[in-house]
Structures are given as structure tokens and as C-alpha cells.
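To make this tangible, this section ends with a sequence with its C-alpha cells:
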Amino acid sequence: MIGYLDLLLRLTIWFLLTADLSLANIIIGVAVALLLPRRYTAPAVLKDGLRVLGEIIVAIPQAYFEAFEIILRPHNEEDIVMERVKPQRTPGLIFLDIFLITFTPKTIVLKYHEHGWYEVHRVLRRKNK
């Protein structure tokens, strides 16, 4: 049986694409959502996905804070660091991690290395000497 969250996600995407909430479109959307093939997802992957979703929700106010911080206090230093990918990440979770890092104004992922590393560019405030 298709999961409720999966069905809800597919229907949401369908309604965003069609922009039509008529009865015929709802029936077609449910049929398409049920007929599309789906992969088996392990409970651990679902738990990691929900954790990343929570991190994204927390990142929204953080992004606004960082944007105002950059406006009010200039950041003149740049740094490139390598960050380790968390273990047992699926390609979808890796995409969400990259989105989360890039979403905030001070950081952007330059490259994902297949060996399990992100190359991250950061802007920093110059330290007073």
C-alpha cells in the first residue's frame, strides 16, 4: 500500500503543476499518484529525511539572520572547507544536505566529492587584530 506521505507529496506536486482543483483533476491526480511506481524506503531513511526536513525549517530563520548580519556587518574573509557527508546517506538526502548548506547566505557547496565530502565555500567576518 502506498504511504500517506508519499501520496500527499505526489498529489501536492500534481496540483502545483496543473493549478486545477476540479473534481476531474483530483480524480486524475489520485490515479496518477497511485499508478506511479515507487521504491521501498527503509524506516531509517524516512527518519533521516524527517530530521533533514526539521533542519531545513530551522534554516529558514537562520538564513534571514545571516542575511541581515551580512548587511549590517560586512564579511570580508573567505574560506573553503571540506565537510564530511553523514554516513548512510541516499542520493536524495545528499541533495537535501547540499540544499541546506547552500540555502544560508554565508555558505555554498562548490562540489560534492564521490568519496563522501562536500567542498563548502564560506564567508566570514574579518577578525580584529
